[in-house]
Design brief:
Blueprint (H helix, E strand, L loop, with lengths): L6 E5 L23 H14 L3 E4 L18 H11 L4 E7 L5 H14 L5 E5 L4 H7 L7 H20 L6 E4 L4 E3 L9 E2 L4 E2 L14 E5 L10 E4 L4 H9 L5 E10 L6 H9 L10 E5 L1 H11 L5 E6 L2 H18 L12 H4 L8 H13 L1
Parallel strand pairs: 1-2, 1-13, 2-3, 3-4, 4-9, 9-10, 10-11, 11-12, 11-13
Antiparallel strand pairs: 5-6, 7-8
């Protein structure tokens, strides 16, 4: 792990991490999917100094899972947030278990252009067979097959992002050429279940390659920029981080904080009367802001960043903004993203060279 400061991400999907979080939401039910709500939550996170917001997604309708949340697509919400923010990174959760990697690649490249280089991608899997029916596809039945789809999907997306060289768009009035076709490349990918020829339909993203985040037990480390690690205690997180093998490592932490109206434990107990907060194997903090600051300080010795999953966004995000991030900033444990800085730069990741542009001179030399 390396980097000047602990990077903080926050999941802002729905009303919070608890399936009954909507019962404590400060907004009326009809506001959840409105532009004002989406932009408002993102603005709070950006103003607080978060490095990144992530947006969960799912192909199944409300009521088909323990979490009854209704959603607009994560990529669509991310695009709206990207246009209304200026510093915070934006990373939708997108599965390629059934979605076409070519289209996913195009959507994410477009997001990076909209955000001027602040886009990321949280790789996920569709595990439930109902998702296959929603896509009209045969089920991908086992864990190894889903992992294969993720590996192939990431490989295709990354190759397509490179299929346009950075200077492929020339806009030459004199020659009436918009593109230099020699700077567009076929990727010629052939996997076990599909093939993609390319090139992409969207120019290379501003970052060259978007920041790809994923679970290190599901996706090979070589395909990730940020490994997401879990563990129910500090020792487990530290062990997972030590073997992650990714350029950056983020710990997954669920949080419930004391608020002026109730303690964290009281708030959790209130929601547990309606639904259980599922144990996902993540470190969980239920307590006050000072204790969370201390926990994050300890985590900073093991990971490069933390993705927080607040119990109830309308309650916990306010405490994070007023108490937690300012305290971390005072201790110089975190730093705000700077305007005009790409997400890769904020995370201390280099902009990668285009694989085809690097290979072209060698190929020309061989042809002589």
């Amino acid at each position: 792990m390396s980097g000047p400061a602990l990077q903080l991400a926050v999941e802002i999907d729905g009303d919070g991490a608890h399936p009954a979080a909507w019962r404590r939401a400060a907004h009326s039910p009809d506001q959840l999917l409105t532009p004002r709500r989406v932009a408002g939550v993102a603005a709070v996170a950006e103003n607080a100094g978060f490095t990144l917001v992530t947006l969960d997604d799912g192909a199944l309708p409300p009521g088909a899972a323990p979490d009854p949340v209704g959603r607009i697509g994560a990529v669509e919400r991310a695009a709206f947030i990207a246009a209304s923010t200026s510093t915070v990174g934006v990373a939708p959760v997108v599965s390629v278990t059934y979605a076409e990697p070519f289209h996913v690649s195009s959507q994410l490249a477009s997001l990076d252009h909209i955000s001027a280089g602040r886009a990321g991608w949280v790789v996920a899997e569709d595990e439930r067979p109902e998702a296959a029916r929603a896509w009209g596809r045969p089920p991908v039945a086992d864990a190894e097959a889903r992992a294969r789809e993720s590996r192939d999907g990431i490989e295709v997306a990354r190759a397509l992002w490179d299929s346009w060289e950075d200077d492929a768009v020339i806009r030459s009035v004199a020659t009436s050429r918009y593109l230099d076709r020699d700077r567009l490349h076929y990727i010629d990918f052939t996997g076990e279940t599909y093939a993609v020829k390319g090139p992409a339909i969207v120019p290379r993203p501003p970052q060259g390659q978007l920041v790809v985040l994923g679970r290190t037990d599901r996706v090979p480390a070589a395909q990730l920029d940020v490994g997401l690690v879990e563990g129910r205690d500090m020792a487990s997180v530290a062990r997972a981080a030590a073997v992650a093998g990714t350029p950056r490592v983020f710990a997954e932490v669920e949080v419930a904080l004391d608020t002026p109206g109730a303690t964290a434990a009281e708030r959790v107990a209130d929601l547990e009367r309606h639904a259980a907060w599922s144990d996902r194997g993540r470190l969980r903090h239920i307590g006050n802001a000072d204790q969370l600051v201390a926990l994050l300080g300890e985590l900073s010795h093991h990971v490069d960043g933390v993705r927080l999953h607040p119990l109830v966004l309308d309650e916990d995000l306010s405490v994070l903004s007023r108490l937690v991030l300012p305290a971390l900033s005072e201790r110089r444990l975190v730093a705000r993203p700077l305007p005009g800085t790409s997400l890769r730069s904020t995370l201390g990741l280099e902009r990668p060279a285009n694989r085809y542009a690097v290979a072209a001179p060698a190929a020309q030399e061989d042809a002589r």
